[in-house]
Design a protein that fits this description.
Elements lengths: L10 H5 L4 H11 L4 E2 L12 H9 L17 H14 L12 E4 L1 H13 L5 E4 L6 H8 L3 E4 L10 H13 L6 E7 L12 H14 L4 E5 L26 E7 L11 E5 L2 H14 L5 H12 L3 H25 L17 E5 L11 H8 L2 E2 L1 E2 L14 E5 L5 H16 L3
Parallel strand pairs: 1-10, 3-4, 3-5, 5-6, 6-7
Antiparallel strand pairs: 2-8, 7-8, 9-12, 11-12
């Protein structure tokens, strides 16, 4: 075909930039000898192989688990998730009933459903700085504008700063375009931090006073992966400061069970929002994978799920300690690098010396690749990479085994030593 004969691409196609995550995952899987500390894979040594085998061995004889499922998802699994969220929040009964829960094709679809149900092209989404960088593919792909919320030096959202931001947007006539505020509240990607309870409550008051129509989207993907004790602050569903406001809570089976199931969930306190997401979901897939849902349902019903997650906590806590210790043993901290010991999750958030650029096109990144080790440049986790700190690095320690973790740390520190 001649170039002039090519189709005219849609705005969505033109906005769909190449995914940073997809590029990093491709390198991790195809470059010989590369040790990846980039893509957030889980550890193949602790995927629930035996639970899945047992679940498949107990498939219903009527074949229902291998048929189409319902659009919102399996009723029993939704009831289980509603009751479990209430238990995690210390509530006597679910604040978000089962009929508000939708089973999704991973948390990525949950993000899309919320954004598509609430936002039109040109609308504004508020995010933390830094945040999960894949959300930018979702929001920009839908033609949305993304604004960073002010943050404190401790890595928490600044409620007073958010109030000032909302007032400024109101003065500029932009407040009606603010439709969604996205938070990762437990062992965040990329920082590993959890949202302080006082901050979460104060934000409820800020939105009630300044922007009560904005929907808060709380991402709890890493909530189960605490190392010693669960983060004490409940979800938005159990906080009185958020009563009367609009919010949705979302989660995933990818980190706490199996990424290969491609199974997530989202629950909104507004039935109208749940209904809108459900209608959009019907246009996309008529229901997420029924077999994946059956496997998750069986894991809960058989009593295998909670002990399995408990074993993951022990496993990943040990890997977090090994990763941090290996960096220290190889002298990374003596080279001016710093990081906080995580209390959960699968990530370390490193700070290089302020003058060191860790971006994808930087000399440091080239040096790391020459040492055959891969990481995620921290600037990708900010809405405006040009204004983002240049010296941050996200390290994912979930997938590599013990010896590989130590070797990856050695390679990374060797690259860093060239810029001491």
């Amino acid at each position: 075909m001649k170039r002039t004969d090519w189709p005219e691409w849609s705005k969505a196609a033109l906005a769909a930039r190449e995914s940073v995550l997809a590029s990093l995952m491709t390198q991790a899987l195809t470059r010989p000898g590369l040790l990846s500390l980039a893509a957030g894979f889980t550890d193949n040594a602790v995927v629930p192989t035996e639970i899945v085998r047992e679940a498949v061995a107990h498939l219903p004889a009527d074949g229902s688990a291998l048929q189409y499922g319902s659009n919102p998802g399996r009723p029993k699994l939704r009831e289980i998730l509603a009751a479990r969220l209430a238990r995690q929040d210390g509530a006597a009964s679910p604040a978000l009933p089962a009929d508000r829960f939708l089973l999704t094709s991973g948390s990525q679809q949950a993000l899309y459903l919320a954004a598509q149900a609430l936002c039109d092209e040109g609308d504004i989404v508020l995010v933390e700085a830094p945040t999960y960088f894949v959300v930018f593919d979702v929001f920009y792909g839908l033609g949305l504008r993304v604004l960073e919320m002010p943050m404190t030096a401790q890595g928490q959202v600044d409620p007073e700063g958010v109030a000032a931001l909302l007032k400024r947007l109101e003065t500029e006539g932009e407040l009606p375009r603010v439709k969604l505020a996205y938070f990762i509240t437990y062992y965040s990607n990329p920082t590993g931090l959890s949202m302080d309870g006082a901050v979460k409550r104060a934000l409820g008051k800020v939105f009630a006073e300044n922007a009560p129509r904005v929907v808060a989207l709380e991402d709890t993907a890493y909530r189960d992966l605490y190392f010693t004790a669960p983060h004490p602050t409940p979800s938005l569903a159990a906080l009185p400061e958020w009563e009367g406001l609009s919010f949705a809570v979302m989660g995933s089976f990818s980190k706490c069970f199996s990424p290969g199931l491609r199974l997530g969930w989202i629950a909104a306190n507004l039935p109208e929002l749940s209904g809108a997401m459900l209608r959009i979901k019907a246009q996309q897939d008529f229901g997420s994978g029924n077999l994946s849902q059956w496997i998750a349902e069986y894991a809960f019903a058989s009593g295998a799920f909670e002990p399995f997650v408990a074993s993951l906590r022990i496993h990943y806590a040990a890997k977090a300690r090994l990763m941090s210790a290996s960096f220290a043993e190889n002298g990374l901290n003596k080279l001016g690098w710093s990081w906080e010991e995580p209390e959960g999750g699968l990530l370390l958030w490193l700070a290089a010396p302020k003058t060191l650029d860790t971006g994808l096109e930087s000399a440091f990144c080239r040096a790391a690749l020459e040492e055959n080790v891969l990481y995620v440049p921290g600037a990708f986790a900010y809405a405006d990479p040009e204004k983002a700190p240049k010296n941050r690095v996200r390290i994912a320690f979930g997938a590599p085994r013990g010896a590989d973790l130590a070797e990856a740390a050695r390679r990374f520190a060797k690259a860093a030593s060239q810029f001491a």
